Amino acid sequence: MTSAVPVDLTVQVGAVRLRNPILTASGTFGYGVEFAQLIDLNRLGGIVVKGLSREPMDGAPAPRLCETPSGMLNAVGLQNIGVRVFVAEKLPVLGKYDTAIVANVFGYCVEDYVEVIRVLEDADGLAAYELNVSCPNVKRGGMQFGGDPALVAEVVGAARKAAATRPLWVKLSPMVADIGLIARTAEAAGADALTVANTYPAMAIDPWTGKSLLGNQTGGLSGPSIKPITLRLVWEACKAIKIPVLGVGGIETVEDVLQYLAVGATAVQVGTASFTDPAVSQRLVEDLERALYRAKAFTLNEIRGKVFADFG
Ligand SMILES: Cc1cc2nc3c(=O)[nH]c(=O)nc-3n(C[C@H](O)[C@H](O)[C@H](O)COP(=O)(O)O)c2cc1C
What we know:
By secondary structure, the protein is an alpha/beta fold. It has helices at residues 83-94, 110-121, 149-162, 179-188, 227-240, 254-262, 273-276, 280-294, 300-311; strands spanning 11-13, 16-18, 22-24, 46-48, 65-68, 71-74, 100-105, 128-132, 136-137, 143-144, 168-172, 193-196, 200-202, 219-222, 245-248, 267-270. It contains nine helices and 16 strands. An eight-stranded parallel β-barrel has the order 3-4-7-8-11-12-15-16, surrounded by six helices. The termini are far apart. Flavin mononucleotide binds at residues 25-28, 50-51, 74, 76, 78, 104, 132, 171, 198-199, 222-223, 226, 248-251, 270-273.
């Protein structure tokens, strides 16, 4: 389906040109192919696939999801089919669609990240890598990569060397004392763009049993409840660096998208909202076209300029 509205939604995330600024967020849209019967994947700016590890992973014990006021908790435990099966089975199918495919990469030590990228480097059909640094570093006593500038510099630097052929996006953890410092560190270590941010560690307890509602005790909070917090992180990151930022956290409506663009994001990703409406990302593309048309703007830069004016 093509648009009846004559507006240009294309955006440039570094070297990657996207047909529009709406991508699906990692872990909330499978490997993309599962949604091909539900929406027109060609309409999306891009698809960030489920996090990929060196070897397949079974993930965390059930229950893995629970609803919270204005959001949800997940403890999926980064279950995935492993990078080699992804390359052999999913990537060829994704190649049929005209949208940017971004591989989300994670590991538990620097060598894990490098090995996943090494395998992906031999494959065709990817627009960029997105490094998930919200993972414990088992060689450093389980300390999260993303919370420590030295570890961010180390993992991003190593990934940069391994990613010879493609742009490297780095997805930051929101659990940091100074997002500007971490953002500048990732930029200096060679990141081409930043994704801000991942979920927030949280808990939900059954009041009558006193037990966790998740098999893994704790999980990651996502959805509308995190949007104001992540919006501020995106704003702080954009002020600190020159490379583009992709905003992700609680986006459900076109107003949410405009808010992220207003604080400086070049593009956005839609996560939890796809659980209640699998077609939400395609609808947001259409709503954004209409919003531009209504604002009598014909490119996103015009509307970004207008909203930026309010922020000085
Ligand atoms: C069920 C689930 C699985 C996720 N898996 C990943 C993952 O594998 N890698 C990653 O970087 N982020 C993962 N995320 C985080 C999302 O990509 C996104 O950053 C976060 O949910 C905030 O956006 P939202 O509020 O729109 O969901 C996951 C989120 C959810 C809800």
